[in-house]
Specification:
The protein has helices spanning 2-12, 28-32, 34-45, 61-68, 80-92; strands at 19-25, 52-59, 96-98. With 106 residues, the chain is α/β, with parallel strands linked by helices. Strands 1-2-3 form a three-stranded parallel sheet. It is elongated.
């Protein structure tokens, strides 16, 4: 996260208007670390001249399912816990929660 901040700072510059940061939760490790990820993002955003401000968490359901070896179902019960954790963490950190993509369309 800090590396990305530094790269963005070099591209955008310090002291400019902050850009919104949308963070993706796509692995079991990121779900376990979600609170630390959000706290770190806000800590970096509060630094003077920070180029980014956290605005949302996205749940990457297909990548997450692949990471944990889950078989996808129409009911999505295999993702229920992770979806609830993402929504709860997003709200706890004043972020917008963006749910998984719906891929069964016709």
């Amino acid at each position: 996260l800090e590396f990305m901040w530094n790269v963005t700072e070099k591209l955008v510059g310090r002291g400019k208007e902050q850009m919104g940061l949308i963070m993706f939760i796509e692995t079991a490790r990121s779900l376990i670390d979600i609170d630390q990820i959000c706290k770190a993002a806000w800590d970096l955003a509060r630094q003077p001249g920070s180029p980014l401000c956290p605005v949302a968490l996205v749940f990457g359901s297909d990548d997450f399912a692949a990471d944990i070896g889950a078989t996808r179902t129409k009911e999505n019960v295999e993702l229920l816990l992770a979806r609830q954790v993402v929504v709860t963490a997003a709200k706890a950190h004043r972020l917008q929660a963006i749910d998984c993509v719906y891929i069964d369309y016709k």
